[in-house]
Amino acid sequence: MRDSFAANTMLDEPFTVLFGGSFRKDDPGGYLLFSDPVDTIALTSPDDLRSFFGKLEAFLAEGFSLAGYVGYEAGYGFEPESFSSESAAKAVVPLAWFGAYRSAERLSGNGAEGLFSGQCRPGALQFDMTQGEYAEKIDEIKKHIAAGDVYQVNFTGRYRFDFGGSASSLFRYLSSRQPGVYSAWMNLGEHQLASFSPELFFRMEGNGIETRPMKGTAPRGGSEHEDRLFREWLGSNEKNRAENLMIVDLLRNDLGRICKPGSVNVPELFSVETYPTLHQMVSSVRGEVQDDISLYELFRAVFPCGSVTGAPKIRAMQLIQELERSPRGVYTGAAGYMLPDRSMCFNVAIRTAMLCGHTGEYGAGGGIVWDSNTGEEYNECRLKAKILKPGKAENFGIFETILYNGSFVWLDEHLFRLSESARCLGFSCDLERIRRELERLTDEELRGRGRYKVRLELHPEGTFQITVDDLSESPSSDPVSVCRAGVSLPSDGHLRMHKTTRRELYDKLLRKAKKRGYDELLFCNDRGEVAEGAISNIIICSDGHYVTPGLSSGLLNGIYRQYFLSTRMNVQEAILTMHDIEQADLLFVCNSLRGLRRAVLFDEVVS
């Protein structure tokens, strides 16, 4: 592989493949680009699986890199006596496809910008089942569970949608909504694949192999408190744990077929990972692959991933073939790459769309067990399609505004908050790289002199910008004049617990307030609770006791607010109303740039 900071190949060219996010273990904000293949290898019949993988082995032996996918229905070829060939024959793209490339090009997040051109959003979604039809299928699955046929079946359906613009512009839009995952783009000519899977199928380096089954889902909360409750619920929920453990056991068995005896282990069980639209329960299974295992034997042992089939795997797959309305195609298969040194990485192709012209298909589903609630399972399908929901563009950044006064003030606190927001929102974040750039800024530009406002903005793919503004003018000792915002903040929406660039309402009303001579304005939420200022947290003092609004009221946990709460004995968090503010002995506003300042509330309303 070679490093590059410029790309000459656009994603719209046939047989271009791009992997991003967690595929780049060395640089989660970067990409791997495969372009201009020397050949392409396609599987059109499951009967030809052994020869197909033999061709892939030959290209690897000649020093070529491979990038492509293995579709779900290709798995029928590993157990041909167990499945009908009918659904494989209905496939609109090859059952498996790989390009053979001279090398893979490493791109930084900034270096990949030239690949993208514009953005477009999907139109309205149409699921291929009504809720009643879905319920009938679930009832059928439960009959098989009751009869002892299976323990779990991963049942899925298809969403279909239209979109304007190019397929690559849709990929860019969806990338901004689901960053930091095992993302993949493949231009197959007439069709294009856009995958935003959060699930690693397997990564193999040397003889070491790791798979990370994902089973168990919870929505994001509308506040930091609610979000934490959803995470805790998912991590401790017995149903989700049982489903996850069932798949872990299945994958341990799969890996045991190709790994050295005694090497298969489970270093991580029932972890909860957070993504922009949901929480997921994840476990990890590792092992040491035997030296003489071929590609065909490797995939025969583990494909398809047990998290998208059910258990026992073969019987669950037979029921899937009987009950689902259309072939899955690449969805729930695997997309990834293989390098000449035999290192390889594949995702489980969930959260994946197949595009053709200006139409797309996107699969969604979940694991059905005996006590599954049909309504909840149907809603889970909708939750997993949330990435496609049309609406206001979600492209935004996370930022921190840091005081420099001879050195950075509260730098560790700012970077910790930035990294936590990045983790929650699925942004790539290389803190060491950010620190190095801030150190360079200190040494070469700021040089220990003066007061500056340093703004650090992080983008979803991990790129960032740093800007500097002079703060040499001493802050006024006069009280801060505060008016009232005539618009309530919604009490739901998890973005407000993070410092993001989605702050149009704050900026618009603050500009209006300043035109009328005010320095700040005070927002309440839609429950009538005091939340925060446009650029400050709120603190009141009555009878010598300090009170600040609690996070449940929907506000940013400011750096100075955290400092104040941790260093004062006579301070507490509580729900405050406007009446509490009016009756307080003292009103303060605070932020990390200006510290704690006296304030005066006026009656004027700005909206």
Automatic annotation (TrEMBL):
Coiled coil: none
Source superkingdom: Bacteria
GO terms of molecular function: 4-amino-4-deoxychorismate synthase activity
Gene3D superfamilies, alphabetized: 3.30.470.10, Anthranilate synthase, D-amino Acid Aminotransferase, subunit A, domain 2
Residue ranges constituting the Chorismate-utilising enzyme C-terminal domain according to the UniProt record: 132-384
PANTHER family: AMINOBENZOATE/ANTHRANILATE SYNTHASE, AMINODEOXYCHORISMATE SYNTHASE COMPONENT 1
Protein's recorded name: Para-aminobenzoate synthase, subunit I
Organism of derivation: Chlorobium phaeobacteroides (strain BS1)
